[in-house]
Amino acid sequence: MKTFASLAVSLALALAAFAHAQDHSAGKKPLRVLLTFGGHEFQEKEFFAMWDSLPGVTYTKAPLPQSAGLLKPGLEKDYDAIVCYDMNHAITPEQQQAFLALLDRGIGVVMLHHNLASNPDWAAYRDIQGGRWLGAKTEIDGKSYGPSTYSHDEELPIRIADKDHPITKGLSDFVIHDESYGEFYVSPKVHVLLTSHHPKDTGPFAWTNEHGKSRIVYFQAGHDAKAWACPSYQEILVRSIRWTARGE
Ligand SMILES: [Zn+2]
User: Fold this and answer.
1) Which ranges of the chain have pLDDT less than 70?
2) Are 55 and 86 in contact (CB under 8 A)?
3) What's the gap in Å between 179 CA and the centre of ligand 1?
4) N or C end of the chain: which has fewer CB within 10 A?
């Protein structure tokens, strides 16, 4: 049987926990994400279920090319970041200019997995992303790259290349069951956060870049639900959104 004193202590602890939870939810506004997809198949049900479960993130679906008209100046007022999971090939010259103007305003941009092969005929996209998956052997700045390769269902050993960056700080090396990408182009200007040590991977696995007033992250991981279930994947994804949105 509980004494009055122990009941009072229990009640006080419960109230303190409740107040703490209120503070926590009120302290940080959710990050508002515009999530692009289209041009490449993926496990839609599992993908959006993962997005529904991400802490501190709200998102709006933006299928491409239908929603490409949204990517223009003004979007930065309604969204903290764009997360690009598309492999869109159909952006118009007007939409390209609008996207560049949006990056000059400043908005977070996180590019995932097969987005490395998005907009293959738009040279500026390669500079924004700091990388490019190449369908054929290609010369870039006097060096030869590609053709790029891929292989499904590999165990990729990932190392933290920069242990001091807000996206990777405190994280440990991990293994992710995912698709490898080989022989793709990576700009010497990017800042590498993660490296893959799988023989079929190129090496750089996640990096940061800048364009206009915008912070960019590219993260190679995320072919399917096996990769999305990796706790390190979700942690790096959320931190990347927060960092590009300048929420640190
Ligand atoms: Zn894939």
Assistant:
1) 1-27, 248
2) no
3) 6
4) N
d(CA 81, ligand 1 centre) in Å: 22
Rounded CA-CA distance 222/234 in Å is: 10
CA 220 to centroid of ligand 1, rounded, Å = 9
* pTM of the full structure: 0.89
Distance CA(4)–CA(241), nearest Å, equals 48
- Contact 220/196 with Cβ under 8 angstroms? yes
> How high is the pLDDT of residue 90?
84
When divided into structural domains, the chain yields a total of 1
Cα of 166 vs centre of ligand 1, distance in Å, is 26
122: domain CATH number is 3.40.50.880
Question: Domain containing 99: what range?
Answer: 27-244
Q: What is the DSSP string of 174-215?
A: EEEEEEEEES-EE-TTSEEEEEE--TTS-SEEEEEEEETTEE
